[in-house]
Write a structure and sequence with these properties.
Elements: H1 4-9, E1 18-30, E2 34-40, E3 48-53, H2 59-63, E4 70-79, E5 87-98, H3 113-117, H4 127-149, E6 153-154, E7 160-161, E8 173-174, E9 201-203, H5 208-218, E10 220-228, E11 241-250, H6 254-275, H7 277-287, H8 291-300, E12 304-307, H9 308-316, H10 334-344, E13 349-352, E14 374-379, E15 383-390, H11 395-404, H12 413-420, E16 426-432, H13 433-441
Parallel strand pairs: 3-5, 6-10, 12-13
Antiparallel strand pairs: 1-2, 1-4, 2-3, 4-5, 7-9, 8-9, 10-11, 11-16, 13-14, 14-15, 15-16
Helix pairs in contact: 4-6, 4-7, 4-13, 6-8
The chain binds 4-amino-1,4-dioxobutan-2-aminium adenosine-5'-monophosphate (4AD) and magnesium ion (MG).
Magnesium ion binds near residues 376, 384 and 387.
């Protein structure tokens, strides 16, 4: 069987010849003596028209097919210069592999994204999700390529962990204990010594701490895997299970980190513009008008830079327009992030040097002793897409900060060892993969860029 992608890409090899194609019926029209089937096979963002006639012995069977049926068609590929599509198949044989029914939910009309979420197992058969999930796949490939071309080592960090990297307490517990009959210590606490790992464990919120250990061995590494957060935020940008890319670079500071992030994002944008032309055109036309122009601009101009302190000064001047008023020390909300990147800078914007109290324990303290060498990358339409920092590489400063935050040294021995044995400046960041897919496709809801979304109150399929 040949793919529709191959027919389109190398049509001169196939026009005028007999071909066999397997695919699914998108629409069907028949009259007494002949009919048309439009099918797609998912390999390319175009459909293929099949003309069939009552000369076929199963003409009646074909005419009765419902949308969604799986068929294999054999016949002559003929050029159709006047038509919308460059060619069609004149069927010599149509084999019905699997029928469908009239109740098939994806009839030829537009469905809302909300409705399609309720049929997450069927939605990849629609144009929108064909485009989203092929582009998602290409972005993943481009990210690997960016790092591999630069000799970064891909590290598989564990999903089950005993530490809370971000210290936000948003972990999903992993346990084999009997919930109905929990073992208790003499003080009445749950006795995790009885649990599978002899300790309390959770699904990881970030691979960073493990990633850092490999950066101290390989210099440049990255992770790319699922992460989990039990954040109770029911927004269009939060998922409980999402994928994160976390590079970590040794002998590098915050400037190097931002250059890496900017280079990576531009590389990935150029990659999809080049390798998913049909899909990107579709997004530009039907999902987000202006997407292509915006991405071209992002790929060819420099990102903005502002410190947190400067950003607060800008935001305080227009405090009346915000639901959450800002003042120095507060965490930036999405409304503030979007104002900065959409209205003030109108491009991707690095915000740096946040107050230490709103950031994680591992970030390097700045000389002012109030802020840390952190950076968030904000983009129009979404807000934060990347969070990163230079890491605290000084043993005494790190343990002092951990003591302030009541973190137990014995839980982080492996991490502290990195500051004992050949410590050096190093930095890294985390790119939220789904937010990156949203940014590059113009899709507005995280639920529509991950195949089977897990969000508050929702773990279907
Ligand atoms: O800013 P975050 O929390 O940073 C870290 O986890 C660091 N350990 C990264 C590092 O320095 N290696 O998360 C990084 C990114 C965010 O910028 C956001 O894009 C994404 O992960 N993210 C989420 N995406 C979807 N749903 C959620 N609930 C997310 N939480 C964070
Ligand atoms: Mg963050």
């Amino acid at each position: 069987l040949i793919t529709i992608r191959e027919l389109y890409k190398n049509k001169e090899n196939y026009v005028g010849k007999e071909v066999s194609v397997g695919g699914w019926v998108r629409s069907i029209r028949d009259s007494k003596t002949f009919g048309f089937v439009v099918m797609n096979d998912g390999t390319f963002f175009e459909t293929l028209q099949i003309v069939y006639s009552d000369k076929l012995i199963n003409f009646a069977e074909i005419s009765k097919l419902n949308v969604g049926a799986a068929i294999i068609v054999k016949g002559l590929l003929v050029a159709t210069p006047e038509a919308k599509q460059p060619f069609e198949i004149q069927a010599a044989d149509v084999t019905v592999e699997g029928t469908s029914t009239a109740e098939y939910p994806l009839q030829k009309k537009r469905h809302s994204l909300e409705y399609l979420r309720t049929i997450a197992h069927l939605r990849p058969r629609t144009n929108t999700f064909q485009a989203v999930f092929r582009v998602r796949s290409l972005i993943a490939y481009a990210i690997h390529q960016y790092f591999q071309e630069r000799d970064f080592v891909y590290v598989h960090t564990p999903l089950i962990t005993g530490s809370d990297c971000e210290g936000a307490g948003e972990m999903f517990r992993v346990t084999t204990l009997d919930m109905e009959n929990l073992p208790r210590t003499t003080e009445g606490k749950v006795d995790y010594n009885e649990d599978f790992f002899n300790k309390e464990t959770s699904l990881t919120v970030s691979g960073q701490l493990n990633g850092e250990t490999y950066a101290m061995a390989f210099r440049n590494i990255y992770t790319f895997g699922p992460t989990f957060r039990a954040e109770n935020s029911n927004t269009t940008r939060h998922a409980a299970e999402f994928w994160m890319i976390e590079p970590e670079i040794a002998f590098a500071d915050l400037q190097d980190d931002m250059m890496l992030a900017e280079g990576m994002l531009k590389y990935v944008i150029n990659y999809v513009l080049e390798n998913a032309k049909e899909e990107m055109q579709f997004f530009n036309q039907f999902v987000d008008k202006g997407l292509l122009e915006r991405l071209h601009n992002v790929a060819t101009s420099e990102f903005g830079h502002v410190t947190y302190t400067e950003a607060i000064e800008i935001l305080e001047k227009v405090n009346d327009r915000f639901e959450y008023k800002v003042s120095w020390g507060c965490d930036l909300q999405t409304e503030h992030e979007r104002y900065l990147t959409e209205e003030v800078y109108k491009k991707p914007l690095f915000v740096t040097d946040y107050p230490k109290d709103i950031k994680a324990f591992y970030m390097k303290m700045n000389e002012d002793n109030k802020t840390v060498a952190a950076m968030d990358l904000l983009v129009p339409g979404i807000g934060e897409i990347i969070g990163g920092s230079q890491r605290e590489d000084d043993y005494a400063k790190l343990t002092a900060r951990m003591a302030e935050l009541d973190l137990k040294e014995e839980d982080y021995e492996f991490y502290l060892d990195l500051r004992k044995y050949g410590s050096t400046r190093h930095a890294g960041f985390g790119l939220g993969f789904e937010r990156c897919v949203m940014y590059l496709t113009g899709m507005a809801n995280i639920r529509d860029v991950i195949p089977f979304p897990r969000t508050v109150n929702n773990c279907e399929f």
